[in-house]
Design a protein that fits this description.
The chain is α/β, with parallel strands linked by helices. The protein has a single domain, classed as Rossmann fold. The chain has ten helices and eight strands. An eight-stranded mixed sheet has the order 3-2-1-4-5-6-7-8, with helices on both faces. β7 and β8 form a beta hairpin. α4 packs parallel to α10. The radius of gyration is 18 Å and the shape is globular. The structure holds zinc ion. The site of zinc ion has 7 residues, from α8.
């Protein structure tokens, strides 16, 4: 890859290239990666920011919303000047300032059955930054269908959850195996339940980290586990769960 022969580019990524799990070969993998981020809010902000900084080559973002004042305490991609603008328009400009080599594809729409069927096959890894279970379950459905890697995040108050699914492999439980049906969106409602900025950024950063681990092929022991972080009590737990016998994921 020509870019890597460039001294400036080598310097830009030098602190991660020096890691034995990355190296030049790993950096090439990052340059060649195709990641779709669904939602550019509290979780999506750190996911997008960190993946762009890491040198991801092709990034897709699905987001239909505009920036609101109430977003600013946790959504670090935006500032006061951006209020009222479409998030995607802001992101397009910000991303170019961080990495002008990135190929960016934006989708100013809500993720749904029609568009996910078209958009999702173009990418290798799907990162969920949404705030509702129906969309998380849709991402689960289509990532299963196209055997993609999926990283789901969920946040509320001081807590965050992460699921990492590699549906290209066999024996992987899915989101529905864990919840056994669609949970109520009440627990994810930032407006009524409240949220502090750091939990969104911690969980989003961990999702970006898991995405990079997927790209680099670093052994991941998160199979059939949920990662639960509680910033109030400062605990991090991994809880096992099993494939459910009558789950739809068994029929694929
Ligand atoms: Zn399942």
């Amino acid at each position: 890859m020509k870019n890597l022969l460039n001294k400036k580019t080598l310097n830009k990524y030098s602190r991660q290239i020096v890691l034995k799990d990355v190296g030049i070969i790993g950096q090439k993998k990052i340059f060649n990666s195709k990641i779709l981020v669904v939602g550019a809010g509290g979780l999506g902000s750190p996911v997008i920011d960190l993946l762009v900084r890491a040198g991801v080559g092709f990034l897709g973002v699905i987001e239909h919303d505009k920036v609101d004042y109430s977003n600013l305490h946790r959504q670090t991609l935006y500032n006061f000047n951006d209020v009222g603008k479409y998030k995607l328009e802001v992101i397009k400009k910000k991303i170019k300032l961080i990495n002008n080599k990135i190929k960016l594809k934006t989708f100013k729409e809500k993720a749904n059955d029609k568009n996910l069927d078209k958009i999702l096959p173009k990418f290798d890894i799907i990162v969920d930054g949404t705030d509702n279970f129906p969309t998380k379950f849709l991402l689960n459905k289509y990532s299963l269908k196209y055997k993609k890697k999926l990283i789901i995040g969920a946040i509320s108050k001081f807590d965050g959850h992460i699921f990492c699914f590699d549906f290209s492999k066999k024996g992987i439980a899915c989101l529905n195996c864990f919840y056994q049906g669609m949970p109520s969106d009440e627990i994810l409602n930032c407006e009524s339940e409240g949220i502090l900025g750091p939990i969104a950024n911690v969980i989003g950063s961990m999702q970006a980290n898991e995405a990079l681990k997927f790209i680099l092929g670093i052994k991941n022991n998160s199979k059939n586990k949920i990662i639960i972080m509680d910033l109030l009590n400062l605990t991090l737990r991994k809880v096992n769960f099993k494939k459910r016998n009558n789950c739809t994921c068994l029929k694929r």
